[in-house]
Amino acid sequence: MSANIIAIDGPAASGKGTLARKLAESLGFGYLDTGALYRLVGYTILERGGDPANTDEAIEVAEFCRDFFDVNLLQNKELRSDESGQAASKVAVVPKVREALLDLQRNFAKAPGGKAKGAILDGRDIGTVICPDAPVKLYITARDEVRAARRTKELQSRGLDVTKASVLKDMRERDARDAARDTAPMKPADDAIVIDSSDLSPAEMFDKALEIIKERLSV
Ligand code: CDP
Asked: What domains can be seen in the chain, in order of their start residue?
């Protein structure tokens, strides 16, 4: 594996995506939003009129998404909806779904493409399962209310009609499912550095993360 791998995990709307994007841009690293892979599987099932809780269907669609994978598919705005997020966390409990998406993620970590000097992956199990040898592992959390407020603002700015109460309920449900599953549950790796972003601005988070990265990588 490439030495320059940054693993960023954490619960829904903790600010890890924003942080990962900014770090990738500033360090010249490639970035993979692994949640978008699970969202793609969940969303594809919903589009087909299927049930994301149906294990066989989840596996079939995950293998289909893997076989016909195109990174542009991850740009679909529909993936960001709460419905896609819920569907994602339902398919994500299935070990064979996770297995189908494993190589894609590890290959990206090894070879992020182009002139990228390293790779940043964010998700739930990057530091524990996907890249256990990553030299930098961050786990970003924030208080539930703060995360719900952030996600509500984000969804509303995309023109979606949501309330903070419904977003908070969905988020808690999803976090509980993600943390309780048997395979690759959401949790900080033993050697991850935990950052609570509740009272930090995106710029402060960025500075804090960069300081940690510079101690571990020659960037
Ligand atoms: O953006 P947000 O933090 O709300 O979620 P996401 O990162 O897009 O992930 C959506 C869902 O995919 C999560 O709730 C997890 O169930 C699943 N996921 C996972 O199981 N493993 C990952 N590495 C990334 C996401």
From this structure: 5-214 (3.40.50.300)
